Amino acid sequence: DQQVKQNSPSLSVQEGRISILNCDYTNSMFDYFLWYKKYPAEGPTFLISISSIKDKNEDGRFTVFLNKSAKHLSLHIVPSQPGDSAVYFCAASVNNAGNMLTFGGGTRLMVKP
Amino acid sequence: DAGVTQSPTHLIKTRGQQVTLRCSPKSGHDTVSWYQQALGQGPQFIFQYYEEEERQRGNFPDRFSGHQFPNYSSELNVNALLLGDSALYLCASSLGWRGQAFFGQGTRLTVV
Questions:
Q1: What is the spatial distance between Cα B89 and Cα A60, in angstroms, rounded to a whole number?
Q2: If I label A66, which of B63, B72, B75, B90 is the partner at 20 to 30 A Cα–Cα?
Q3: Which chain A residue's Cα is nearest to B55?
Q4: CB contact under 8 A, A43 and B40
């Protein structure tokens, strides 16, 4: 029973263009959503988060959109840079728990120069 | 300021053996969660420790147990290892259970 799903295992984007990573969830109790980035041989690093009371949160080149009715969130990276190439994980939690996370399977983003 | 540190970085064990993994949280953090990341999958929550007690547990059997020490460091123990326990084990620390999780680099466990 996968409560958080990332249906695209990989995404390839040209440098300077927009990267859009998608995530769907099934548990309506989730009220806090996060994106983590992971490089090989490193642990996941926090990127951006959004509470269920919002529908958009922006931090520099990164924007997360939340559509509660569709149980869908997306991460937009504009403009994409080669250093953004990594595996991106969507995560969700209940009661704003920052360290009891349910993760999706990840999307490998490749940004080509 | 040291981040989350885990030891060892790699480990090879035989089926049926027992293993102990260790985690030192980021300075100032008091809560430690453990996650298992199988190859090609996302991390899966095992359990969380706060004030030296297990506070929450994911869908993992009793073969997985843990401990938190007074200095907030933590251990993950896995008994009767199975081939399917081969994975990257990640420790994440936070300030309280609602705090932002900071992950260590993980321990790669291979069971043969």
A1: 31
A2: B90
A3: A100
A4: no
Task: Find chain B residues with C-beta within 8 A of A96's C-beta.
Answer: 98
Q: Tens digits of per-residue pLDDT, B10-66? A: 999 999 999 999 999 999 999 999 999 999 999 999 999 999 999 999 999 999 999
Q: Count CB neighbours of A8 within 10 A.
A: 14
Of B41, B56, B90, the CB nearest to A105: B41
Nearest by CB: B48 against A42, A99, A102: A99
Say whether B84 sits in a helix, a strand or coil: helix
Q: pLDDT 10s per residue in chain A (113 long)? A: 789 999 999 999 999 999 999 999 999 999 999 999 999 989 999 999 999 999 999 999 999 999 999 999 999 999 999 999 999 999 999 988 889 999 999 999 999 99
- Contact list in B for residue A4 (CB cut-off 8 A) is 42
CA distance A54 to chain B (A): 18
